[in-house]
Design brief:
homodimer, 339 residues, alpha/beta, two-stranded antiparallel sheet, 16 helices, 46% helix
Chain lengths: 339, 339
């Protein structure tokens, strides 16, 4: 028997979870109205903000209060200001601006697939009328490429350190399903010896090309239009980046893909897989473990795989070594395969 | 200058908020599949659960892990069990079962109105194609009445104590926009001297009548079909319950309604308003203050009003006294008007 009284049962977590979608839509509205930039520029009460963002004063007052409650703004004496995180990531003038993520994360398709989650649980794979999200479908992945690049930059910075530690010259990198291309591009920007080949569907590659241009690495950037499944990848790469890709597929498919990547590496070359890798309990760390549900909702058979599962896949594909690298400040982990 | 280092900026809150709808849909799926009851009855791993809830093992494994991460289940050695709150509120065999809330809180209409929140902020009122949610529309409010009754019971217990403290005999209560009727019904169940008149649209009243029957108070329960705006309310009531009603309207409308309720009270009679009442900063307490956004999304001009605002409305409507009662364990507050 415990001497402490048990806390009284409360339905609060149930209520707040069943209404948690309100939080997503409120932040989406703040981003769409560019409320954060307006506040950063000095419009700090409903009366001045409503003119600046072209919305009703009542609407702005209620939204700004809500965003304060949710931790995106501060409010003192009726005046709003940005939190430290909002100033870095939600002010459009900030180089680390990430508001664009909203276009993808709260897209009709992403939320729509969650609408039918009960059916997906029954089926054991996506019940979306569109089907598995890894089938060629440029619109979705162009949206991803346009929206999610900023989120990749911190991880890409870690990859840049890994790659620059290698003394070989030049360094050839293949970036699989490159999307926005920001992993390879960031690494190339950090190391003038790096040449990146970015593989993706043609419409998506247009975004990566733009980003390479903006980053000033277009002369060390090659666009390879096609699919990781059947396009000739080339050979002799020092590194192959496999970022947020293997989680879309089942184990046999990943083994087949890893065999293709193994063939494209030079001896001693490495794959660097960036992934949500939960611990074996599959409930920690929370963000990585929770990602499994996203794959249930969007794919036929994808998953957030554990490191032992990745180890087996790499071994089956012929890699002589596979290691896990945990970067404390990143939500994702690195799985490194060595040929 | 602070001597402590500022925490490193992190986009984690932005990411988790933009994807927070996943939490709502996961809990909805758990409730729809009745996963919690299945676990309570002893099916505690994916292999046994999937048979019990008629779903794919992979789907059940991923959903149960997610619900563990979100605090609705525990997982030890691969076996799931209910948390204390889930056992009370999500096991269908529990008398305090609240899973039914999901039908209302995650309904297509409730989420749909949030989809257009940016437009509602611009407009300063609901941009829903259905319009203001307080216009007669039985389907939505029948859903509410069928889904949200359990949530009312703790607050109704507090009302029962307030009312039973009154020595008058008998006690006549008018329950405005009664919905499920659980406020008046619970009070009647607790006090045999209480007679409740429940006002609502006819289709909604059918739910309240059923609940009165189940609670064994049908002989002290009168259904009054109509609207608070124009139906003759009767007179000489000891109490009028105004539960989650005034938040739908603007101040002049509420003053007009309160005048009607004032007329229907006997001298010394009281209105008891159950509401989300934020403090004057409009950002605390969080749940009450956040409710304002729901009214922006669903109504033309509703709001979560502060107590000084309610005081003014009561005064304008002729009440001689208006007091605030805060019940620490409840998310809502009571505003009591005295004739």
């Amino acid at each position: 028997m415990s001497s402490a009284a048990a806390p009284k049962p409360s339905p609060e977590l149930i209520f707040s979870t069943l209404t948690s979608y309100q939080r997503a839509f409120a932040l989406k509205a703040g981003i769409e109205l560019d409320l954060f930039t307006a506040i950063a520029e000095g419009a700090n009460d409903p009366a001045s903000l409503c003119k600046r963002v072209n919305a009703a004063e009542r609407g702005v007052r209620i939204l700004a209060d809500y965003l304060t409650i949710d931790g995106f703004l501060r409010k003192e004496n009726g005046k709003y200001s940005l939190t430290a995180d909002s100033a870095v990531f939600l002010d459009k003038r900030s180089p680390a601006y990430m508001g664009g993520m909203s276009h993808f994360l709260t897209s009709e398709q992403n939320i729509g697939n969650m609408w039918v989650l009960t059916d997906s649980v029954r089926k054991g794979g996506t019940a979306s009328h569109i089907g598995d999200n890894s089938k060629p479908e440029d619109g979705r992945w162009v949206n991803f490429a346009r929206s999610m690049g900023a989120m990749a930059v911190p991880t890409a910075g870690v990859l840049a350190q890994l790659v620059s530690a290698n003394p070989a010259s030049p360094i050839r990198i293949l970036d699989i399903a490159a999307g926005h291309g920001m992993y390879g591009i960031t690494v190339a920007k950090n190391n003038p010896r790096v040449h990146v080949t970015a593989l993706d569907w043609p419409a998506v590659l247009e975004v990566a090309k733009e980003n390479a241009q903006k980053a000033g690495v277009a002369d060390r950037f090659t666009a390879l239009a096609g699919s990781a499944f059947d396009t000739h990848l080339g050979e002799g790469y020092d590194y192959i980046f496999i970022t947020n890709f293997l989680h879309h597929f089942d184990v046999p498919t990943n083994e087949m893909l890893l065999r293709r990547f193994h063939s494209a590496l030079k001896p001693g070359g490495k794959t660097i897989t960036v992934e949500f890798v939960p611990n074996e309990d599959r409930i920690t760390p929370p963000m990585a473990a929770a990602f499994s549900l996203v794959m249930l909702a969007h794919t036929d058979a994808g998953d957030a795989y554990t490191f032992p599962e990745y180890e087996k896949m790499h071994s089956a594909a012929g890699f002589r070594n596979c290691t896990l690298q945990i970067i404390p400040e990143l939500p994702q982990r690195l799985v490194i395969g060595e040929k």
